[in-house]
Amino acid sequence: MAPPIVQCAVAAGLAWMVATEAVGHSRPFFAPIAVVICIGVGLGQRLRRAAELVVGVSLGIGVGDLLVSWIGTGAWQIMLVVALAMAVAVFIDRGTVIVLQSASSAVLVATLLPPSGTGGLDRMVDALIGGLMGLAAVALLPASPSRLVTRHAAALFGSLADVLRSTAEAIDRCDPAMAAAALQAARGTQAHVDEFRQALDTSLEIARLSPMHRRQRSRPAEYETAADPLDHALRNARLLARRAMVALDDGDRLPPWFPGTLRELAEATLLLRDELAEGHEPRRTGAAVRAAASRLGTERWGFSADVMNAQLRSITVDLLQATGADREDALSALPPLDPS
Q1: Are 33 and 97 contacting, i.e. CB atoms less than 8 angstroms apart?
Q2: Neighbours of 226 (CB within 10 A)
Q3: What residues does the Integral membrane bound transporter domain cover (predicted)?
Q4: What domains does the chain contain, in order, with CATH numbers?
Q5: Which of the chain's ends, N or C, has fewer CB atoms near its CB within 10 Å?
Q6: Closest Cα partner for 316 from 279, 308, 255?
Q7: Mean pLDDT per 10-residue interval, the chain, length 340 residues
Q8: Inter-axis angle of helices 258-277 and 303-322, to 10 degrees?
Q9: H/E stretch holding 215
Q10: Residues contacting residue 145 through CB under 8 Å, at least 6 positions apart
């Protein structure tokens, strides 16, 4: 949280200075407010937030100035102004920021800032100054895009490896309770996926905006290639852990090569984490996943085993695609199944 806090603080002060000293506005409170909304303490979509902010403030002020000058202020007037401002914003764009800013700006005009001369235009200019200063702060005081995405990716890779290892251990011990624990842990991994995607969006945005990190643009792009396949691999790992729990609880026979292959894929996942973090092309990961794929069985063992084998094959394809392989190449690494 340190980088966005510093960005907000510095840009808010500079936005106030620009609006007061350079533009000559006496109370440009929309300028620092726009900075805080534009940058925020969350990750991603700052360009969109800045655009929504300026449009939302402009809508709210425009609707508020127009109506309040006709109907005055009061409880029912505020109801009407807020409803109309939000309705117009929704018709233009359903983004959260634009709708909320149009409503809050209309409320300010209807209560504290009655329309007067160029007041509405001044507030729009203040919002534009704040949005631009916020984007400038992101560009000139940026967090490292590679470090940001690498840190959040590490949690995602670790979660996938843990699920695969825990499932392998449960199968080794024929312990359905351990498989249930692996499934429970797997169900909590979606937060890591969401955080990683937000960090990736922010890293790509910083790399585009900041002249200081132009050389790092390829690093987030490599993670972008891996994002969807890793998400799919985690989903398949959850299904695998669930079927392992059912199979062990029913006492089904499972292939003896399952645990070893699961551990190999877990190690390959961590190897992919390390290669991407170091900025290397994940060739060793590709070789490790292909080696694990060569040990996938082709025989039929029963319903649960066949379902788990299908999930293992899917995870293998997902990991190969995460290294940059196309789907056809990844599928070709799988041994053909026994049709009988």
Answers
A1: no
A2: 26
A3: 15-136
A4: 2-140 (no CATH), 145-332 (1.20.58.220)
A5: C
A6: 308
A7: 78 89 82 77 58 73 74 80 82 74 76 60 78 75 67 86 93 90 86 80 68 55 84 92 91 88 95 89 93 85 87 94 91 79
A8: 20
A9: none
A10: 202, 203, 204, 206, 207, 210, 213, 216, 219, 220
Per-residue pLDDT of 116-166, as tens digits, reads 555 567 777 887 788 788 777 766 665 565 677 788 788 889 999 999 999
pLDDT of residue 41: 47
Question: CA–CA distance from 323 to each of 1, 156, 267, 271, 274 (Å)?
Answer: 30, 15, 14, 11, 12
Give tens-digit pLDDT for 54-104. 777 777 777 777 777 777 777 887 888 888 888 887 887 766 767 777 787
Helix residue spans in the chain (DSSP H): 2-17, 30-39, 46-71, 75-92, 96-111, 119-140, 145-173, 176-187, 190-209, 218-250, 258-277, 283-294, 303-322, 327-332
**Which pTM value belongs to this model?**
0.64
Tokens of 65: 């100035």
Across 274-309, b (16+ Cβ under 10 Å) vs e yields: ebbbeeeebeebbebbbebbeebbeeebeebbebbb
HSE (side-chain half, CA atoms, 13 Å) at 286: 17
Token pair in block for residue 183: 């499934």
